[in-house]
Design a protein that fits this description.
Blueprint lengths: L4 H28 L1 E5 L2 H11 L3 E5 L14 H9 L2 E4 L7 H7 L6 E4 L12 H10 L4 H7 L10 H18 L4 H27 L5 E4 L5 H6 L3 E4 L11 H13 L4 E4 L6 H10 L2 E4 L8 H5 L4 H16 L2
Helix pairs in contact: 2-7, 7-8, 8-13
Family: Belongs to the bacterial solute-binding protein 9 family.
Protein name: Zinc ABC transporter substrate-binding protein
Organism: Cohnella luojiensis
Length: 320
């Protein structure tokens, strides 16, 4: 059917207006969502679980990147400044406080997920001995030796508190959807409570209570589930142990008949492998969940799935 010139013009105008209407609808949908920036994987996962469809949650630190050493780019700082909500753990992100000062936004809500949680010192006995010998000559070294452990998220019990802090931040940033955030947080915390119970039940009867790991990331997990972490090095995964530290760990492992030396993803396992070779043990992964690997992503793993894998590895190692 042919249209007259006048009718054709009306039809074209209608199509143009229709297209504009659809575009505006999509933009409005995006505009209705909170813009949330979260520092690294656990904070991203917890925030997404609570926010649901109400927010666009963007993680700063890419998968496979060690967060202890990461620094934000100018683009990252701009993203934080423009966000409605910024979520970070605290202590891991040494850049956070300074960045928040330079990226001020009076309308942004900032959530430090470890606020109000009783933090533990990350000092192990090797560090304590070294500092006693040095006589605490330098204040900076004393602070470094007694640094607070940031790895709160590795205790399912404490992860629940972090989720509640994030819930409160979302409710403050978007009070109109307060009930939905509470509902989502309650549902996720129910899963974390089940995980917490599984850790308690499966580890309570372990034959051995000590485990050796390459990096001191599991202090909260050990404390909450009646275990003792024996780290080869300190809180930073890049810290190289001294020969004396290596010898002490080897002696401990031999004395306690340790059969597994744990190492972490995103970190070279050579130190753990060296000790394992010396004592005739094997190595296994204990994932600190500081970032997902490509393999984790391809398997569809998330916080709960990886923590279940960690639990299975611990149960096996502690009952050998």
């Amino acid at each position: 059917m042919k249209l007259g010139k006048g009718m054709a013009g009306v039809a074209i105008a209608a199509l143009v207006l229709s297209g504009c209407g659809n575009s505006n609808g999509n933009d409005a949908g995006k505009a209705d969502k909170l813009k949330v920036v979260a520092s690294f994987y656990p904070m991203v996962e917890f925030t997404k679980q609570v926010a649901g469809d109400r927010a666009e949650v963007v993680g700063l630190i890419p998968s496979g990147v060690e967060p202890h050493d990461w620094e934000p780019s100018p683009k990252d700082v701009a993203a934080i400044q423009e966000a409605d909500l910024f979520v970070y753990n605290g202590l891991v992100e040494g850049w956070a406080e300074k960045t928040l000062e330079s990226a001020k936004n009076d309308n942004r809500v900032d959530v430090r997920a470890t606020d109000g949680i009783e933090l533990i010192e990350g000092t192990d006995e090797h560090e304590e001995e070294e500092h006693e010998e040095e006589g605490h000559e330098e204040e900076g070294h004393e602070e470094e030796g007694h640094a607070l452990d940031p790895h709160v998220w590795l205790s399912p019990a404490l992860a629940q508190q972090e989720v509640r802090h994030i819930q409160a931040g979302l409710e403050k940033a978007d009070p109109d959807n307060k009930e939905e955030y509470k509902k989502n947080a309650d549902a996720y915390i129910e899963k974390l409570q089940a995980l917490d119970e599984k850790f308690k039940n499966d580890l309570s009867g372990a034959k051995q209570k000590e485990f050796v790991t390459q990096h001191a990331a599991f202090g909260y997990l050990a404390k909450d589930y009646g275990l003792t972490q024996v780290p080869i090095s300190g809180l930073s995964p890049e810290q190289e142990p001294s020969p004396e530290q290596m010898a002490e760990v080897v002696a401990f492992a031999n004395e306690h008949e340790v059969k597994t030396i744990f190492f972490e993803t995103l970190v070279d396992p050579k130190i753990a492998q060296t000790i394992a070779d010396e004592i005739g043990a094997k190595t296994d992964v204990l994932n600190p969940l500081e970032g997902l690997t490509d393999e984790d992503i391809s398997k569809g793993l998330d916080y709960i799935g990886i923590m279940e894998n960690n639990l299975a590895g611990l149960v096996k190692a502690l009952n050998e």
